[in-house]
Write a structure and sequence with these properties.
By secondary structure, the chain is mainly alpha-helical. The chain contains 26 helices and five strands. A hairpin with a 3-residue loop joins strand 1 and strand 2.
Length: 572
């Protein structure tokens, strides 16, 4: 209260006494309330512990054991085991989960990057393990408690800071806390890793045509102007996509300026190196560009036709090599979007491929691969669309897909589609589902061990859902044998997997085996874990067992890189 000067000292004295009495009363009330709250919290905690089922209690014991065991592991595996244990604790003890997340992050700070300067450095899981761990740990913390993630960020690697800040921005957008989102985005205004996806999300949430929406757009344009020179041009995921999405709600002058920035930046990129960019998208759509400038023209010409038609016509005349693409997709990105309509930032791009040479043979090979992938995607989508109306035809179409995957599609199209059919028909048409699974298992003999093992886990789970436990056990046994073969490759002394052990294909497959085993029998995971020859991986699998008991099943991300072979990363 602000007491003005002309009030009497008596009034001031009375008010002061009242305030003191009121304050004392408030403090007493707060103390009482605090005591009551503490008792209430203790009672709730006690009741919560008492309510744990025997299965949950077993999971807590396993997680506690893994947490203790992690103390004796090397920092990278310690952080990894604690990170996944923290996810499990969240289901039964959020306070302990937070503590274990903090322990995991602390352990990550002791990780020493072993191959950061090596020629073998091809992915974070090989040469930036600290960065990989911190990004994963803090991403999970941010999804649960953005403020807690921000408290840890000052101690994180620089690139991780940008990744997590972007996640936190998206969280605030979801919560409609646009002020905080804008403030955090402003902090990244000059970052080389500007979060265009988060900025687009914020623009979508703000009123169309509002000054705040324009401010975010101009910030993105300025950042692109400063930092795009060393980056690959992207069909989606940067300023080009933002222009395509929001040009109608922005002042024409701002849009035309952004288009100039895009085109001028592309010209500079093309001076340094020739680039070929191909893409495949849903619905069998594909295409390619022979320069960064062509890609940017494809994005902006449909917009220029509305804002500056004469310039659009001139650009089309000057760049006749783009004529085929603009004829096929006259509305640019909007034409690629599924059903001709882009929603939520999704332009239906499935994969992109970049090369930096002008070899006609390689360019033709790349274009053919993109067309093939687009056609496989179209046929796979057809299987998904017809499985409800005509499951037998869907099964036949799935069996007709190619067995071997292409480079970017990763998974076997045929086996992947067959498992989709089995999943969709397991209740209404179990005979068709069984046929799809049986055919899948026969086809698995001819694909690589990594895919074979993980497809077998899917098959195991589907057999369980169809109440066929004997078939499920057989499929699981086959998957365990495959994991052993993968471990032999991962741990090969002559050519070991250079990726961090926690993401080895063998570790990931054992993780899924243990999770599936828990669904077959409560004690089966222990039997399987006894077969694992690596103590560090076994500690990780103990967490898999616990988390499956708590209903938390994860699909691990896997990575492999060998000196005598290429690098690959898979997420099932």
């Amino acid at each position: 209260m602000n007491l003005v000067g002309f009030r009497s000292s008596f009034v001031i004295l009375v008010l002061t006494l009242c305030a003191n009495a009121s304050g004392q009363s408030a403090r007493t009330s707060v103390k009482l309330e605090s005591r009551q709250r503490s008792k209430s919290s203790a009672t709730i905690a006690s009741k919560t512990k008492a309510k744990l089922t025997p299965q949950q209690q077993r999971a807590v014991r396993l997680l506690t054991s893994a947490r203790t065991e992690a103390a004796g592991l090397e920092p990278e595996m310690r952080a990894f085991v604690l990170w996944h244990a923290a996810k499990g604790f969240e289901a039964v003890d959020p306070a302990k989960s937070k503590a274990v997340f903090n322990e995991a992050f602390l352990a990550s700070q002791s990780v020493v990057e072993k191959q950061a300067e090596s020629d073998d450095c091809g992915m974070d899981e090989v040469c930036h393990v600290k960065q990989f761990l911190q990004a994963g740990i803090l991403a999970d913390v941010a999804r649960r408690d953005p403020e807690a993630a921000q408290e840890l960020l000052p101690q994180a690697e620089d690139e991780v800071k940008d990744q997590i800040t972007s996640l936190v921005i998206e969280h605030y957008i979801t919560k409609k806390d646009f002020g905080r989102a804008e403030a955090l985005l402003l902090r990244m205004a000059d970052s080389k890793r500007y979060p265009y996806h988060a900025a687009s999300g914020l623009m979508s949430a703000l009123p169309a045509g509002s000054p705040r929406q324009l401010s975010v757009f101009m910030q993105a344009v300025d950042n692109f102007r400063q930092n795009s020179a060393d980056d690959f041009p992207r069909l989606t995921g940067d300023l080009g996509e933002m222009v395509a999405r929001f040009w109608q709600s922005l002042p024409p002058a701002a849009v035309l300026d952004a288009i100039d920035v895009l085109l001028n930046g592309a010209k500079e990129q093309d001076k340094r190196q020739v680039q070929h960019i191909g893409f495949s998208a849903r619905g069998g759509k594909s295409g390619s560009f022979n320069s960064a400038y062509e890609l940017r023209l494809f994005q902006v010409i449909p917009i220029l036709e509305e804002l500056d038609k004469a310039r659009a016509e001139d650009l089309k005349k000057e760049n006749t090599s783009l004529r085929a693409m603009t004829s096929q997709y006259p509305q640019g990105l909007q034409s690629i979007a599924e059903n001709g309509k882009q929603e939520g930032g999704d332009f239906s791009i499935y994969s992109s491929e970049y090369s930096v040479d002008n070899d006609p043979a390689r360019t033709a090979e790349s274009d053919a691969r993109q067309r093939l992938e687009a056609e496989i995607l179209r046929r796979t989508e057809r299987v998904s669309a017809e499985v409800e109306k005509d499951p037998k035809q869907a099964l036949a179409d799935a069996e007709a897909l190619p067995l071997a995957p292409s480079r970017d599609l990763g998974l076997s199209p045929r086996v992947n589609a067959l498992i989709k059919v089995a999943r969709a028909t397991r209740q209404k048409h179990p005979d068709i589902a069984k046929s799809a699974l049986d055919t899948s298992r026969k086809n698995l003999e001819d694909i690589d061990p990594l895919q074979r093992g993980h497809f077998l886990i899917d098959i195991t789970d589907l057999y369980l859902q169809m109440d066929r436990p004997d078939d499920a056990r057989k499929a699981l046994q086959e998957s365990m044998k495959t994991a052993e073969k993968l471990y032999a490759q991962d741990a090969d002394a002559n050519d070991p997997n250079l990726a961090f052990k926690g993401v080895w294909p063998s570790a990931g497959l054992w993780w899924k085996c243990v999770q599936s085993a828990a669904s077959i029998s409560p004690d089966l995971p222990e039997e399987l874990m006894a077969e694992i020859p690596d103590a560090e991986i076994a500690a990780y699998e103990r967490v898999a067992w616990a988390n499956s008991l708590l209903g938390k099943r994860e699909s691990p991300e896997l990575a492999q890189q060998h000196k005598n072979g290429g690098a690959s990363m898979v997420s099932f």
